[in-house]
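Below is a complete specimen:
___
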Amino acid sequence: MQVSVENIGSLERKLTVKFPAERFETQVSARIAEMGRTVRLKGFRPGKVPTTVIKQRFGDQVRGEVLSDLIGSTLREAVQQEKLQPIANPSIDTTGKPENGEIAYTATFEIMPEFPQVDVAALEIKRPVAEVSDADIDKMLETLRQQRRSFDEVERASADGDFVMFEYSASADDYRFPAEGQERAGSVLGSGTLFKALDEALTGRKSGESFETDVLFPEDFRNEQLAGKNAKVSFSIIKVQEPKLPEIDAEFAKLFGIADGDLETFRKEVRANLERELKAALMGRLKSEVAEKLAVTHADLDVPKLMVQSEARNMAAGSVPQGQQPPPQLIEAAMPVARQRVIAGLLMGEIARKQEIRIDRKRVAEQLAAIASTYEEPEKVIELYNGDPQLMSGLQNRVMEDQVAEWVAEHATTTQLDLTFDEVMRPVSA
């Protein structure tokens, strides 16, 4: 077997491999002979099918299979011989026909870059730290009350927090919505479901009231005919309902799985859930911080184009409905951030390799238990992960990223960033 390597880019390689045609023909003959012992054809006894018949019926198929197998095996040998590390399946080009007693093919692929020495100690990392306070628990309990609230109809004028059901029509220039009659809608005032001007128009109104007023529709309103326009809107109030919040008592606690309704147990359960969410969010913030600093520090690192394109495609896919292909311009727009992510991911992998960081099985089990605990049947979720290599691999990769991020934070120039629960869970930029 002859092997030659050509550099066709910073990370692109073209591998040319030649192997004896005799090796190919020998394997073809051996496979056809094997088929002669096993193949069943009408008109022939088992094991008695003539070789000429097998060649006629299956010759092209066998030759194609043998060629594919030989390319696979010789490519593995060649890559190992040349100490190359392709990042994906190579593009193969061959005629498959012997020339001068040899069969040749080329394999084109990208390889991993040579990684620089990462000076972790020079990285300045801000590690976020936060705790769950009693006030955070109280706030969550109030949120749970709001989620379980009911509404009772009232005769008074509507106020913030009330549910208002109404019918309306809007006219701007020569346009009317709807074309005939009125559209029915409903919303909790102050909830953000409606835009502010509409909330204000519906505040202080009673059931059965009809009125007309001018409303300035926002520029980004979903109806383009009304967006940014001052329209005359006619309203008919159908009903006004005020919220009725449940008391935080034993019955309320039972709704959330506290069988005996003990409120102290309920608060402990809420605290545990918040602490689990906070822990995950803090780790996510730390990983983002480490990844950003690595990517910025090594912004000039050559990375495989294929990996960047794949990451950009995945990012773009998250911005379109499931099942739809993202448009090329969306993929292109994601390329700069995708490149940063690839740089960070490769460097974190290199750190793990050089520092011999091994996956912590205990942490994998803990994360799996945390994921499972958010479902009604945790044991089935655990069973699903244990039975699906792809799911388990994804979980293990996340745990390894956590471990690398923590190692970097421990060995970098790290300062503590004190935050509240809300600052971590609901950052202003979000």
Remarks:
- The two ends are 58 Å apart (CA to CA).
